[in-house]
Amino acid sequence: MPIVKVEMWPGRTQAQKAELARVITEAVVTIAHTTPESTIVIFKDVAKENWAVAGVLASQSP
Fold first, then answer.
1. pLDDT digits 0-9 by tens, 13-52
2. What is the pTM assigned to this prediction?
3. CA 17 to CA 33: how far, in whole Å?
4. What region, left, alpha or beta, does residue 18 occupy, with left being phi > 0 and alpha being psi -120 to 50 degrees?
5. What are phi and psi of 47, to 5 degrees?
6. Which residues partner with 58 through β-bridges?
7. Distance in angstroms (rounded) separating the CA atoms of residues 6 and 43
8. Rounded distance, CA 11 to CA 35, Å?
9. Domain ranges within the chain, ordered by starting residue
10. What span, in angstroms and rounded, lies between the C-alpha atoms of 24 and 8?
11. Superfamily of domain 3-60, CATH level 4
């Protein structure tokens, strides 16, 4: 049972998440030879102040 966790900044719509879930599931089914019913996609919105890139908080970058 593949579980794919997607962490991203808040702000994506339900429609965007639905599309991501669909294409991620299709890719996992094709590449990992599993079924859509056994593929789980979990979305987690993480605030920019909880991310850092190159040592700088995303909330502080331009």
1. 999 999 999 999 999 999 999 999 999 999 999 999 999 9
2. 0.85
3. 23
4. alpha
5. -60, 145
6. none
7. 5
8. 29
9. 3-60
10. 15
11. Macrophage Migration Inhibitory Factor (3.30.429.10)
